[in-house]
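#struct-pred

JT: dropping the chains for the assembly here, can someone run the whole complex?
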Amino acid sequence: MKISPPLTLAALLALAFTLAIGLAPQAAGWSQRDKAGNVFGLMFGDGRKLFANQFFTMADVYFHSGYYPSVFDKNSDEEKEIISHSHGKKESEEDEKNEDFLGKPKDWIDAFGRNFKITKHTHLEHGNEREILPWLRLAADLDPQKIETYTVGAFFLREHLNRPDQAEAFLREGLRNNPDSCEILFELGRLYHESLHDLNRARNVWELGVRKYLALPPASQKESKLIFEEIVVNLGHLEDEAGNYAQAINWLHAAQKVSPAPDALQVQIDAIQKKISAKQP
Amino acid sequence: MNKIFALAGVVIKELYRRKDFYVLFVLTAVLTFAASAVNFFQDEKIIRYVKDICLLLIWISSLVIAIVTTARQIPAEREARTIFPLLAKPVSRAQVIAGKFLGCWLAAGIALVVFYFFFAVIASSREHTWPVVMYFQAAWMQWCLLAVVIALVLLGSIYFAAPSSTSTISFIVVAGIMLVGGHLNTIALSQPEPMQSVLAGVYYFIPHLEWYYLSDFVVYNMGCVSWVKILAATLYAAAWTGIFLTLAWLGFRRKNLTT
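RK: done, full complex below.
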């Protein structure tokens, strides 16, 4: 049988066109699936989480401008500093000392080699924090269920780069992928409260966070105690700021039940009660 | 010396006649442009990840050029039987080794200049600065490393049967030293004897190529390294290059070229 080349070409083009029409809508759906984790999920399966963790680590490496322990150094498995930084933790001198993973040079090769390595512990500042963002974006694309990526990214966007609009969009994306996340709701509330000074939206988001927490099974509630405490303490401060003192006291009482330092909260409650008695004639 | 330069000239001509360099350069440029075209959070000033990716590609490309070009030099001469007319001229085997080394090293240097110029243009287009000294130090140190690598590959090409095996083994050795070489002493401490002594011995015996990786200084804008240290590292590289070239010459001197 003789095959005509133009006919073969036409048949192949028709096949390609038909396949493109059939697959295009499905391909668009690949990047919108939240549980399967978008097109990366399709390509890498659960392996994408490894890449996501690596990219998240890269963000921390960039935050330290390359001064970072390798797998062979001590401190290699410590909590990422971008996470503790986003929780508002400031470093003490002791922390700095503990993070000196290099220690004293072991021999002349090690000592000489340090001239060609970054050996100074610094953090990005003056707007250079933006350099960590590509890695966080990639981490979020690869593992949309990794909640820290959204909270850390949003924190740096609003706090250091003055981009609350982008921070909100990132958190909203995180919330779409993780609708029950108290952490994302807490960070979203902070954004409304601290950056946009919108008390009503902050209150709504945090109250939703409390409801999500209370809907968790007891074992998960135990794990999320810290974030619950942060939400209710912030709600207490918000109500205090809004002049709803009774409600503020209620929230602080709720915080006392899970807080490791209830006495400190009692001091705050007493201060609010003084305000109430000062108001009464 | 003229004979060595003449031999080196032939190797350099080979670099621009072959397509390896062009393909790698275009690949580096395309991947760098693609990376820089991505918009993260609508922030135009983000640049470090582009510098990081570009420098990584430059490192990979320059290593591929250096290793692949060097690995085929002597086997190709033997296979094409051009080694016999070459040695029939008043050229010693030592001069052949020196000429091949110099040619490959200069060819790698030319490739590095092109790569780093491209990198500088890309980086300055967003950073609006030209830290020329920092770029020079990074390129110089990389060139010093390539001298050691080229000498090592030349040595391998005398003993291994085919250029492919020489290239593969060289890549593994270089990547191994770059990634683990500086940590062998730490790993040794956690090992029982006699592994501890073996690893500690290897640590002191290998050329420490990881010193020559200054990309982090360039990516994170951490300033320049002391020139005295650069000079010391250059001398260290020269010493290792000399060791490998001498071993290559000793092997080549007694090599039966007819088999």
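JT: nice. The mean pLDDT of chain B is 89. The CA atoms of residues 134 and 221 of chain B lie 9 Å apart.
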